[in-house]
């Protein structure tokens, strides 16, 4: 009798512990030091660092994603000068996404990459770096797991891109003397026939920088649960050595009855670009994410999502090559439009 009531108490205890998970437990101000489900609201502190007039926030860090990827945002006023000096990434893939406003980014073929100048007052640039962590100066590789204070990292990254030690042959004089092109026509410094904002943009070739204008890349329509349009920005074959994908998902209003349950081998994050996303991660209650809010889903944690707004669009980053985006593409069809059919 005693034993069974103890057992009963024990099982009640477990039940209570789970039932007690609240949205307050899910919502954080800063990315945690190891992977767990979390949501960071737009403009939360997110390890904010100010460098001159640029404000960097880190919603997913190396440690918080198990070094799968970093998700960051940069807010800055318009400026005529380069925000970041020319540099090279040896190991990391860096993706720039215009969340709002306008910025200019210079990328050269080969190893040299230069960025970025902020053009409009209310600009927010979202960056995805894979694998997680920062490869500090870009001129020499640093293990992504190495801990260095973030601000120091960024200062090094931003101000001393050509820091020693480095083999002398690695940075050509042309990079040190870099003077970006300013002969922009229709928003691009054209090389040959430019299709920037005038024609379809494909996903490029592995190892080369490429640009996709908003809405001009490939699109796929999935109709398995409401309508979802996947616009891949990084496909599995483009990032074979780093093993990740990046896409936007545009989602129609859906019924909240039995949304598909996902449980995937790789970590993922979503950032809402437009509309409202309802997401349930593990045993936490359903969270409603608005524009700029970020949710992180660790590997092997089940989640569901649905949208009650008529039109919701999110940026989706996923470690591995079989994420929600790729599975929706597999179950969908090629599609020419950024919106879904009438429903
Ligand atoms: C710039 O855009 C306009 C309008 O789309 C087009 O007519 C013109 O040919 C473009 N110029 C160049 C150099 O691409
Ligand atoms: C790619 O990532 C997935 C998810 O993180 C992982 O399960 C898989 O083993 C990785 N594959 C390679 C080749 O690293």
Any overview of this molecule?
The chain is α+β, with helices and mostly antiparallel strands and 343 residues long. The chain folds into two domains: 44-167, Jelly Rolls, CATH 2.60.120.10; 216-335, Jelly Rolls (Sandwich). 13% of the residues lie in helices and 29% in strands. The chain has five helices and 18 strands. It has helices at residues 2-19, 23-26, 150-159, 173-176, 324-330; strands at 38-40, 49-51, 54-60, 70-76, 93-100, 103-107, 113-118, 123-130, 220-222, 228-234, 244-252, 268-274, 277-281, 287-289, 294-297, 303-306, 311-319, 333-334. The chain has an eight-stranded antiparallel beta sheet, covered by helices on one side. One 2-acetamido-2-deoxy-beta-D-glucopyranose (NAG) binds at residues 185-186, 194, 198.
Topology:
Blueprint: H1 2-19, H2 23-26, E1 38-40, E2 49-51, E3 54-60, E4 70-76, E5 93-100, E6 103-107, E7 113-118, E8 123-130, H3 150-159, H4 173-176, E9 220-222, E10 228-234, E11 244-252, E12 268-274, E13 277-281, E14 287-289, E15 294-297, E16 303-306, E17 311-319, H5 324-330, E18 333-334
Antiparallel strand pairs: 1-15, 2-3, 3-4, 4-8, 5-8, 6-7, 9-10, 9-18, 10-11, 11-17, 12-15, 12-17, 13-14, 13-16
The protein binds 2-acetamido-2-deoxy-beta-D-glucopyranose (NAG) (2 copies).
What would the keywords be for this entry?
single chain, 343 residues, alpha+beta, Jelly Rolls, 2 domains, five-stranded antiparallel beta sheet, 5 helices, 18 strands, 13% helix, globular
